[in-house]
Records
---
Amino acid sequence: MSDTPFCQCPVVPGPPRLVRGNTERERMPTVVVEQAADVAILLADRISATIARCVFEKGRCVLGLASGRTPIGIYRELVRRHVTGDLDFSRVATFNLDEYYPIDPANRRSYRYYMEENLFRHVNIDPSNAHMPDGSVHRDDVDGLCAAYEEMIRAAGGIDFQILGIGRTGHIGFNEPGSTPGSRTRLITLDAITRCDAASDFPDEVSVPAEAITMGIATILEAREIALIATGEHKADIVRRAIEEEPTAEVTASFLQGHAGTTAWLDRAAAGRLTRLRLADEGPG
Ligand code: GLP
């Protein structure tokens, strides 16, 4: 997270340019575009269309949201559309994937703070509809909070569209390696790589909370549509494992291969190790 509420990346004018190629090794539908800004536009389009369709069909829409750097461009574009009068959040409910534990929601390093700064306070969502795990509850109350979070998602009718980033450990939410496909919202110990990656948001690595509350893999897989989003070269290795290798608890994003409504959305850099890009680099001969 940065101190500035929005990513300063320019929004690319014109339609996103697709990167095509041999997709035989890809075990889930995958869209590759040139730049991160293209990914932001495409996802903002999907989310806007989902909100419009769900509100028309059932009077409300439930979004599953992620934090981290990856979705910032998407939130920026959603805010822009709201400001221009093209996107209404009054019938939208949201459930965030995860939150550090322990952490005060008012702490500027919390995911609650991140969501307020990057989306919630800029749009007309009813604050009582913007749900996040509360990282400040007493440890004795964490299990109850997790069960209540699952129940709230169910009571809202389930998640219509879930945004997911991917960590360098292959995690979705904070489902670190070893998390099973049946896992539910729970407290989890963060992987050393994850804490190292989060260190730039905190004074130092030891200040990064050792634990987090995260939706489980089973919780995520119940969403009707899922977008796995990755941008940047530093994600290329783990993206290839998630998309082209057999599903494994070592890379929990790979469990998305079993969900028919999942699409991976990548920029060229994050897709760089996929066979479709490697074959293209080798040329036709
Ligand atoms: C954190 C979050 C994940 C997120 C991941 C990637 O670990 N809990 O939900 O997907 O970071 O973050 P970034 O988008 O900054 O690479």
---
Amino acid sequence: MSPKKKKVEELNKDSESEGKERYQTVRGMHDILPREEAYWKTIREIGYEISELHDFSFIETPILEPAGLFEEGIGEATDIVEKEMFSFKTRGGEVVVLRPEGTAPVMRSYIQNHLGHFASPLRVFYEGPMFRYERPQAGRYRQFHQWGFEIIGDGDPFYDVQIILVTINFLTALGIKGLKLKINTVGCRVCRPTYRKRLLQYYKTEKRGMCKDCIRRYDKNPLRLLDCKEKECEEIRKGAPIILDNLCQNCNAHFKETLELVESNNIDYEPNPHLVRGLDYYSRTVFEIASEGNPKLALAGGGRYDYLGEILGGRMIPAVGVSLGLERIIEYMKKENIAPRKRERKNVFFVAVGDEAKKRSLRLINTMRLASIRVLESVGKQSIKNQLRSADKTKSKLALILGQRECFEDSIILRNMESGEQETIPIEKMIEEIKKRLR
Ligand code: HAM
């Protein structure tokens, strides 16, 4: 290569690396930036309001849990456990994972802390990050946030539908319309084995046309054959036996009663006999909720998990719950132009001119904040013009101007940012006067 060409190549290399930061977020993970604050605040505020309104108490479990909790709880033959867990050994040799979901940890906590003694059923909600090593794509991340509701300690369909209703009420309060519930039952220990056998019989003759994953699922987790998204498998599924024809009497009654309650609550629903969901702990009711704007992307999913307590070493504890995917909800809101909650920002903007004023400003600002007045400032910008420009930009109602003269006279200027009117008031009256004007 000629020296000239080499130089050009080196230059190109430099310009390529320019703008590339040394460190970036890990693939599939993202920062939540200040410009998204309004959405996250809205979701969390409404989440807390809805949780309280529906009588759910707060619970928070650690992000790290023993790997076995999910291997046993979610099931070894699920995608999550087989290939999506972030697991590692601690210095003490314990194998832990970043929690991929919140239900197994809540049940662990229920057993560990004897929460059944305090309320029956126990109604809890949680919010926080979950981690799954999935292929990143729209609406699917490796770190994402869920809001979850769990009702533990009662097997009545009444609670299945309460869980569905709290989810719909949450999404509706956010302004999401056209919600559709997809619902199914996956039976119980009595009827599922027979159904499983029938499924295996059917798929045995179809094996040649199935995708690679389904061939594996055939041996390990045949129910999951039903929700494979590959074209060839969707075709095969059309002839598969459905669980509704194989339910035991109790599961049949449970599903019937659940659907009756769904109907009497005017929930727009569609029974989907192929909905099995990706977690093995479910029994009886399973469901997903999506909106008509993107019916394929579930905003929430859940179901009943009556055996999870027993699997985790306790006893049989009937339970039902749901989790909502917060990133998906926010993306949906943005796409459909659903605005986050508007706040009337009653703030004041502090303008300090000169060194003495700047020195005094921090104490004055803090006094106002202690009196619950929202104060913004850009004291570092020095010039009064720039500071007032910021006051304007932030739509502050009042600007407080402290200059050398005001410092000397122990006074401060109040400027009405709408009318431009200004008046000078004694500093000891500052709080009282501001509150009067902000009212
Ligand atoms: P899940 O269906 O795995 O259920 O997740 C619930 C919701 O979390 C999904 O509907 C979706 O909105 C969101 N979600 C799941 N994976 C991702 C991802 N990789 N990126 C972005 N969002 C995602 C559960 O987790 C169960 N624990 C639900 C439950 C609670 N069942 C009973 N109680």
